[in-house]
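Table S2 (text version). Query chain:
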Amino acid sequence: MSETKIALVTGANKGIGYEIAAGLGALGYRVGVGARDEVRRETAVEKLRAAGVDAFGVPLDVTADLSVTDAAELVERRAGRLDVLVNNAGISGEMGPGWIQDPTALDLDLVRTVVETNVIGVIRVTNAMLPLLRRSTSPRIVNVSSSVASLTRQADPDIEIGPVMAAYSPSKSFLNAVTVQYARQLADTNILINAACPGLVATDFTGFQGPRTPEQGAATAIRLATLPDGGPTGSFFEDDGVIPW
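Corresponding structure-token output:
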């Protein structure tokens, strides 16, 4: 089996996910570009290859059982194992004026849709990829979260945390809680799993509003994906360090 480390990044055809894939590729990882859209996925793969990255496309819809199962089988055929899984794919859900999701008028179907992608999708992909991760000598899982998931910050009136987002923010709090449960369950293994906040990044996800570039947004996830053995697990990080839950 090749000694080249293998990574899979979900939602890697654009934005932060693409830059995570590019950053890991620049470090010598062979990178699976997970994405639903075939054209965008293959365009990203071609762009990465042109930059010298050993990349391959992985058709992947995190909300569909069969798609995730097929993706795991593809990674096994192409690489035989997985060293890094970055669960980056996520959605905000429809926003109202001022980029607000009003909890008093929230569409429950919207909540279900956001949780299906941001939480259940992560569980679905992680569990499908775990047998491949267990074949690695130093497996790492990174769940891309957000500082708006921090209940400590959300509840502090003296901290500016942005608009009310009653579907998106709780979905990321849920993701953080799930991350801790994985860390507890996997505590006796060599798998490290952490949550990463990219900050407010100018991508289509934010309407290209934000002070940070996608490359800057990818930095924490890349750092957590390449942690040394014995590194932290079950924690929540941004550029400046640990974020309070």
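Notes on Table S2: Helices lie at 15-26, 38-50, 65-79, 108-133, 151-154, 168-185, 214-225. The two ends are 39 Å apart (CA to CA).
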